[in-house]
Amino acid sequence: MSQFRQYLKKAVENVVSHGDTDIFPFPVENILFQDKKTAVVDLLENFHKDFDSYITNYPLLHERSLQAVGYYGFRYGTQLDPLWNAYLLALVLSIADDIEAARISASRDIVFSYRYDFDKEHSSLFDKKSNWSTFNEKATELAKKYQVVLKCDISNFYPSIYHHRLENALKKASGNTESIRRILKILTKISKGVSYGLPVGGPAARLLSELLLNRTDRLMLSEGMEFCRYADDYIIFSNTVEEAYAKLIFLCEKLHENEGLAIQKSKTQIMSSNEFLLLSEFGDNSDNSEDDQQELNFLKLRLFYDPYSPTAKEDYSELTSELSKFDIIGMLGKEISKSRINQALTRRLINSVRYINDTQKKAAIYSLFASEEDKKSNLDILYPVFPSVMILTRAIISDLDDETKDIIFTELRRLINSESYITQVPVNLSYAVRILAHDKAEETDFAISKSYKTENNPIIRADIILAMAQRDCDYWISDKLKSYGSLSRWEKRSLLIASYILKDEGEHWRDKIKKELPEIDVLLLDWFSERVNNGDWGVLL
Strand, coil or helix: what is 289? Predict the structure, then answer.
């Protein structure tokens, strides 16, 4: 066994436990990773032994898709081929201890984002005690000691990271030059030959980006600045407005000179510490109304539950007990009634619905999917958190009665058939397709088939193939076999799985093409064949 295998195992286990990105629905290959961990690690080890050959002969699939940010903004996320994504993560994990050692110590409570601390039990990569909440708590504590607070963040951070500057930072932090070489080669492939940009959404890029900002962090410390940072968000403390401006100028100059980065003008704020504390969920909120205080208390609630914990039953009981103190449905309804939601609060309310009773779940679904003729549907108001609505819906759909499911399916079909701006956003459409995969109605055949014809994104088209298979649309899958040669590799992989609903026809077709398949697709076929032979087609979407 190679020494590198330990990092491959960590990477695969992390993907199985936590997914590959926080933007896209998890690819079906994640189920393969779960069922066939050893075989996947073996294949990845082949990648590692002959890296330069594999990256040439087994091209690195990657697809960028738009995700909504707020009501009018967008950002690109990058979905990597699951196998290459796991391999890139393993490479980064092989130098992750070096990256963490090079950063300002976590014990100093200055930089709170993505502090590497591998948890073997949960296969998690980052210290849970260092997070967005502790960042804000520390900022609140420091604001009480100063008169002026500067808030700013980096504009277009991940896509603007220069590979050469990242390479210099990596070589200074670690002596593992071969891992660094391979990381940079993969990043160049993903960015299509240009020398900048990290794939947005995965943990490998998070670790790399943190190291890049380390030099600026240390420069700020050397100037005696009091600040805290989470990812690309800075909060800097001063006693005068003039001093705050001087620090802003320093930060802008150093980010530009050293890293080629810029501060986002529209989100930069200089305010009094009193104003900052009034806006903070951790400030003095004694003058708040009862409703406002309930919202702040709810935002402070920790909604983490591990079903595999030895104390899972007690943890779940404690969580549901805490949630029972809040009017989840009422608070959600209040947000939906606004012209614009509080995104952080609404996202958290939506996430909490899975832990309330079935009657309340049904009421929540009615609130989320309600639609009146000639009026905006509630999903229009919830547009910035649409993926969260879909993730919740997928998590609880088996708990819902047919009437409630029909409300969901009818509204999603309406969005697609009317070409709603909501499902014109690729990431949103991807989530919607996965929910409609659970709808057997003939009307959904039309809606999903229409999306396949009009959508160019190969990842969404691949999901549609799986959705049609999960819905047992054998006529549609059979027709697609005829165009297999012209499909993208994402679609081909889905069609290999989908062909199993065609029984003998699918088997004869697979026998004809199997010799041409790359190793990952052969592994995929062998895995799914086992599932089918064991009578376990399973729910893939």
Answer: coil
Three-state secondary-structure class, residue 302: coil
CA distance 488 to 462: 9
pLDDT digits (tens, 9 = 90+) for 94-150: 999 999 999 999 999 999 999 999 999 999 999 999 999 899 999 999 999 999 999
Beta carbons within 10 angstroms of residue 257's beta carbon = 10
Q: Where are the beta strands (DSSP E) in 206-360?
A: 226-230, 233-238, 269-272
Q: Residue 75 pairs with which residues in a beta bridge?
A: 67
CA distance 154 to 255: 9
Question: H or E element: which one contains 68?
Answer: strand 62-69
Q: Is residue 285's pLDDT more than 60?
A: no
- Give the whole-angstrom CA distance, residue 114 versus residue 326: 30
Angle at 396 between CA 394 and CA 402, to 5 degrees: 95
What pLDDT is stored for residue 319 in this prediction? 78
Give helix then strand counts, H and E, for the chain: 28, 8
- Residue range 51-73: mean pLDDT, rounded: 91
Structure tokens at 507: 């088997």
How far CA 405 is from CA of 48, 400, 409, 464, in Å, comes to 46, 6, 6, 19
Q: Which residue, chain included where needed, has tokens 């050469």? A: 164
Mean pLDDT confidence for 42-56:
94
Write the DSSP assignment of 7-26 as a string of letters. Answer: HHHHHHHHHHHH-S-SSSPP
Element (H, E) at 267: none
C-alpha distances in Å from residue 147, one per residue of 136, 252, 270: 17, 22, 11
Whether 261 and 246 have beta carbons less than 8 Å apart is answered as: no
